[in-house]
TrEMBL record:
Residues 102-292 form the Cupin type-1 domain. Residues 1-27 form the signal peptide. It holds the Pfam family Cupin_1. Residues 80-122, 173-218 are annotated as: Disordered. This is Cupin type-1 domain-containing protein. CDD domains: cupin_7S_vicilin-like_C (cd02245).
């Protein structure tokens, strides 16, 4: 347990660095991550044991702006540039730490249909990401559409809303998992009945804001808007629904990405479609034909028509 906490802290530290480095890769102006450079070293004097205490204090006295300080965009660009020059003591020549900038949205989307597009940079494209065991993705969900409910088998996802608004729903298997980000955002009002995706069987659903329990899963629901951050642990089925007026774009960091698999619970690539007949019969009480009809109804994958899109003419 402690090891995994440490893992997460380490991952987050790595992630943080990449958050800074990658901010310049994104072309979108509205994505302003330049403020996130921080005085991480100040609280850990034990790293500098060989230094005299007074010197140490002199050095770190200047670092008095708090844990999070501001760096200009130029400073961050310069940092990134010096990384890509390999000037970090890794010797000359090609190093795996040579960062070649690439644009997340400049390449072909990994998934695309009329309901949305998904771009990603994985360890295959960028060895630094593999070393950090992280992948970066950008999902741009068309207004009124949704992302099919899915869960990650191993990765912790950190999702940042960079454009638009909408809502997110997550099924949380731990009843005590109440610290999840959305519980703090309760009470903002919501747009009536909302779709929780096809992993729900509809029974015992309550028309309630926020969270409710069903079969040992606690449903967590929240409105999201630009700047909202969601932390989604592995094994937590999650769906994102774009608002009706604008596309919802989210930047997504997958931590522990190496052995991760994304399992979709709805859509034409749904795991339910791959269940064999006996498993289906056990899992669903209903007749086989009915189950197949329900599961097979969806022809799109990854990005689907949203719960309220019938009201909107498609683009
Ligand atoms: C990002 O924020 C910084 C500090 O607030 C500002 O100086 C800079 O112009 C902003 N960049 C963009 C692209 O909005
Ligand atoms: C960045 O920091 C500056 C000064 O601390 C603040 O005025 C500005 O709003 C911040 N920008 C963002 C995008 O958070
Ligand atoms: C999302 O897609 C819309 C429509 O194509 C586009 O205008 C917008 O810039 C995209 N957002 C991002 C963050 O890529």
């Amino acid at each position: 347990m402690h090891a995994s906490v440490l893992d997460r802290v380490t991952s987050f530290f790595n992630l943080f660095i990449f958050f800074s480095l990658f901010s310049f890769l994104l072309e979108d102006d509205e994505l302003n991550l330049t403020n996130h450079t921080c005085g991480l070293l100040r609280p850990i004097p034990f790293c500098f044991q060989k230094t005299r205490r007074e010197e140490w204090e002199q050095v770190f006295e200047k670092q008095s702006k708090g844990e999070i300080t501001t760096a200009s965009e130029e400073q961050i660009r310069e940092l990134s540039r010096s990384c890509s020059r390999g000037s970090r003591g890794h010797g000359g020549g090609e190093s795996m730490w040579d960062i070649k900038p690439s644009s997340l949205t400049g390449k072909r989307p990994s998934h695309s249909n009329s309901h949305g597009r998904h771009y990603e940079i994985t360890g295959d494209d960028c060895p630094q990401l593999r070393a950090l065991d992280i992948e970066v993705g950008l999902a741009n969900i068309t207004r009124g559409s949704m992302m099919a409910p899915s869960y990650s088998t191993h990765a912790n996802k950190l999702v940042v809303v960079v454009e638009g608004s909408g809502h997110f729903e997550m099924a949380c298997p731990h009843l005590s998992g109440g610290q999840s980000s959305s519980s703090q955002r309760r009470g903002r009002g919501h747009g009536g009945r909302e779709c929780g995706g096809e992993e729900e069987e509809g029974e015992g659903r309550e028309e309630q804001e926020g969270e409710h329990k069903s079969r040992g899963y606690k449903q967590v629901r929240s409105r999201i808007k630009v700047g909202s951050v969601m932390v989604i642990p592995p094994g937590h089925p999650t769906t994102l629904v774009a608002g009706d007026d604008k596309n919802l774009a989210v930047l997504c960091f997958g931590i522990n990405a190496r052995h991760d698999e994304k399992v979709f619970l709805a859509g034409s690539n749904s795991v339910l479609r791959q269940m064999d007949e006996l498993a289906k019969a056990l899992a669903f009480g209903a007749e086989r034909e009915k189950v197949d009809r329900v599961i097979g109804a969806q022809t799109d994958a990854v990005f689907l028509r949203g719960p309220s899109s019938r009201r909107i003419s498609s683009e």
